[in-house]
């Protein structure tokens, strides 16, 4: 489906608002929308809401060969899926330009920042290593997917546990969950992406742009940073020139934002850990509260088994009488003990209904002949046709 | 063109209705009747196992190639890799290029058919535990697409598996060298014989067994039942017209009859 | 290729086990209109199994998929890990034909109705959960439907015992899993998908049990929608 373009009217209105330091949703220029971080029942599954923007990240692992150039390292693979669920203009199975940019930035943020200790993923040097895969699904596009995705990805990595492995001689044993507690990945620091959008020749700048603001922006700067104030990536796109002061100011804003968000992630991880320890209910299903009018909850319901059994008995007896006729006509043909005809060595045939271009069915089998003759001929049906002209022609044709 | 042919082309549904109200199908079959099933076992000499199935005009050839492979980490299980091809030659509906959606779904159906029925134990494909196993590549190619390819494929698959002969492989323990003795062959041990039976629903009420491709195009629903002895392996009804319990029962009964018939066909051919 | 591990702690699986005794339908939750960009959306869960489903349409259709007499129904299933595999294609095919039967496609010729389903947590009866979520998403988008559909799964255990709405553990331990889809009009069978072997007797028992459970699911649909629509009066 094609995307609905933004009207000129709306575009001008948004720009005018920004010039007056106002935003459509009432935020001030440097405000983030509300962030909600939730974890699933399976480990390494994280769901992040940034305002209405939603991203789901899932981490999984498998044993594979390490890269030849780096035989002592595990492999981290990042995949960003822009599902048509998020926005009607995204197509399933085809990576858009926007999608490519997004996956590249995520890769830079997670892989090239070396936030994860890949060496600890090695099992046997040069032969076996863990491959860690991060799948990021964009579920709802209301602007600033990038920041949301980076929060989801790093939280999921921190939440993930991989099965424990022991190596004895040549034998590699992957322990099941019951056997040994799974081990967390070793993560050095939490790099997060913060995007800044610029309007009117870089005069105005906004943090956490909404979808409409992204449509009218002139350019964008993305800073990847961790809470130790280290910059991991920096990218500027769009047709604009920035002053040194602007870049510095943005990085200062990024510092405060990253500190707050990192704190939030730690808190969410801790909450989830506590809930699991206490054996409380956790996971996505628990997020839905029954209070909103759009949400509904039906508690565990019993289905009376005895009733089901009774009904089945009733059904059984009644169905026997009612459909016996139909089922008989349906199955009678097959119920005759049919012989397997051996046509040649290794070639056999069974059944004789309908035409087949493969074999000559006009065999001298009396049985088959007699059955054929009682059957309906197609031209007889045509006699039911309405006009007499039709009849003549069909009969002629048949003869 | 004869008029009844024009009638058939312009109003295919009405054409079929005329026949079906007399409980017969345009190709002279009754509603519950299969087309003649011809089975040829061992028709491809270069394959380890092979068969050719002709179900009316529909025909499917199946070849099984065996390769030696390394097992997954836990060691004893071999691989079964079925693949269904619908090349352009079998019907005008298919174009060259990557497999169509139907071909992908059929391939997946074959995988499910093998795993659900457990007719081949994957442990039987083990040569040296943890080191070597057989990997059987099962290629099913449709040569003529005239409906009910599912049943033709499963029958061809079962017949080819029964026909499969694997050479004896020995591994020298010291040198680790693999030797294949082609003169001695071993049969694959297969204890079960699952058979599939397909139905379509015509005009939301009439059930037809073994549909031709014309009938499949007119169908408002489809149903495939796989039976194995006295058990059911799979009931697969993807959407379409809802059916009552009695209709389902009728289909299951018919499927069991077909199951016995097809089993006899394979047994008698293997015995000869 | 070795299968990817998604790790679920043992305790979590057991907690699931303890919470649910034999013949119960797990807790159902839904949140309608949870996503903003689509015409209809729902986050639906059965116990801990959760899926997100959205629907678009009737809308513009790609020219090569246009049908002159009815709407084209498209279904996209997004697995949580990796790219769609053949098994997901089959799942899409089942979903598509099930929903095609339910939607009155002849009302919107030359247009498309698309449904996108995202797996978020698979802890048993995923297929049933997908179908129920898709139906709710269509209801949320107010697409014309001939009937609603409800799916319920059962697992047949090794000893022949039948478990309604199985969780992951029961699904893995069971000898067979059967998923039935019923229509809301006459509770007839719209779809059946099974895996593993089972007897006719077990089939009969399962279908009767799931039919009863399906009525609860239909009731849940009605409750969810009436709760949402009540406010606008």
Automatic annotation (TrEMBL), chain A:
The keyword Thylakoid does not apply. Residues 32-163, 189-255 form the Exoribonuclease phosphorolytic domain. One of its GO terms (cellular component) is cytoplasmic exosome (RNase complex). Residues 310-328 have a biased composition (Acidic residues). GO terms for molecular function: mRNA 3'-UTR AU-rich region binding. One of its GO terms (biological process) is nuclear mRNA surveillance. It comes from the Eukaryota. Pfam families: RNase_PH, RNase_PH_C. Its main location: cytoplasm. Residues 295-337 are annotated as: Disordered. Keywords: Cytoplasm, Exosome, Nucleus, RNA-binding, rRNA processing. The keyword rRNA processing applies. It is found in: Cytoplasm; Nucleus, Nucleolus. Belongs to the RNase PH family. This is Exosome complex component RRP45. It comes from Biomphalaria glabrata (Bloodfluke planorb). The lineage of its organism: Eukaryota, Metazoa, Spiralia, Lophotrochozoa, Mollusca.
From TrEMBL, chain B:
InterPro entries: ExoRNase_PH_dom1, ExoRNase_PH_dom2, ExoRNase_PH_dom2_sf, Exosome_comp_Rrp42_subfam, PNPase/RNase_PH_dom_sf, Ribosomal_Su5_D2-typ_SF, Rrp43. It is found in: Cytoplasm; Nucleus, Nucleolus. Residues 33-167, 194-255 form the Exoribonuclease phosphorolytic domain. GO terms for molecular function: mRNA 3'-UTR AU-rich region binding. GO terms for cellular component: cytoplasmic exosome (RNase complex); nuclear exosome (RNase complex); nucleolus. CDD domains: RNase_PH_RRP43. One of its GO terms (biological process) is rRNA catabolic process. Keywords: Cytoplasm, Exosome, Nucleus, RNA-binding, rRNA processing. It comes from the Eukaryota. Signal peptide: none annotated. Coiled coil: none annotated. Gene3D superfamilies: GHMP Kinase, N-terminal domain. Pfam families: RNase_PH, RNase_PH_C. Belongs to the RNase PH family. This is Ribosomal RNA-processing protein 43.
From TrEMBL, chain C:
Its main location: nucleus. It is found in: Nucleus. InterPro entries: ExoRNase_PH_dom1, ExoRNase_PH_dom2, ExoRNase_PH_dom2_sf, PNPase/RNase_PH_dom_sf, Ribosomal_Su5_D2-typ_SF, RNase_PH. Keywords: Exosome, Nucleus, rRNA processing. GO terms for biological process: nuclear mRNA surveillance; poly(A)-dependent snoRNA 3'-end processing; rRNA catabolic process; rRNA processing; U4 snRNA 3'-end processing. CDD domains: RNase_PH_RRP46. SUPFAM superfamilies: Ribonuclease PH domain 2-like, Ribosomal protein S5 domain 2-like. It comes from the Eukaryota. Transmembrane segments: none annotated. This is Exosome complex component RRP46-like. The lineage of its organism: Eukaryota, Metazoa, Spiralia, Lophotrochozoa, Mollusca.
